[in-house]
Amino acid sequence: MPDRKLDIGWPRIFASVARLGSITHAAAELGLSQPAVSYQIKRLEEEVGVRLLHRLHRGIALTEEGEILFKAARAGVELIDEAAKEIRKKSRLPAVRLFTDYGFASFWLMPRVAEFRRRHSDFEVHIIASQAIESDIDGTAEIAVMFGQADEFSGDAQLLMPERVVPVCAPNFKERFAPFDTADAIATAPLLHLDTNAEPRWLSWEDWLAAQGVSRKPSHGDLGLNTYSLVIQAALAEQGIALGWLGLVDSFLENGSLVRLGPELERKDSGYWLITNPPASNVTEKLSAWLVEECQ
User: Fold this and answer.
1) pTM for this entry
2) What is the share, in percent, of the chain residues with pLDDT greater than 70?
3) CA 26 to chain centre
4) Which among 286, 276, 243, 265 has a CA at the least distance from the CA of 162?
5) Is the same domain home to 238 and 111?
6) Is the pLDDT score of 136 beyond 60?
7) Domain containing residue 104
């Protein structure tokens, strides 16, 4: 643990007892038993040859000699603690925090970040994932990968992954309910929706069907879920047809656990954007460059 105190023996024990005015309270602070603390104080008094504490009905009081030793012990403990903190700070790897949503983190980032960490072992990556796609950017993160449209972000934002969707389902679902060779046929199946309390910022089933010339309202067989991870899990579990975001579901299409059912729909001014909080450090620039490279 980074804040763990060094075990320096009697100076810390005596300084704690003197500062708190209680052997019991010092034992609790140090994580020791009361007899163990009392034994250390007794041994210390034997070594210096004088009484250091007056044992009172409630707590302790320092003798004159105890006051002298306490000043030295307290100063020594504080110096050692500061030195240990400085040493740990220097030995700790620099870190960069990346904020994004669960969908991007679980489907795109996690399968790739191990390779990035192998190539850049000189710093740490801390991933902060939000359950909601439409979350505001975490202000503590140096880098964010956010979903939205171009006019929602500053001019420095860089489009990593344009929004491209295609209907997908599990092979067994297709086999049971096929054919899905037309948009009208797809519209008759249970559809999996990514729900939101506000107007969707992403391409929805209504958008995809409208692009194919089909009008359809949600039906009682549809299923709404509040995270994209759940949408894809439901598709894998043969619960219906989902809109697969290309870039996030590629691995499922490649290994055959999901299959395409229709044409793509793309919105070029929308998708996942790379946003950096200035000033950009060396580690931030390395992670940003890797994200851009991997998304090309």
Assistant:
1) 0.65
2) 92
3) 37
4) 265
5) yes
6) no
7) 95-295
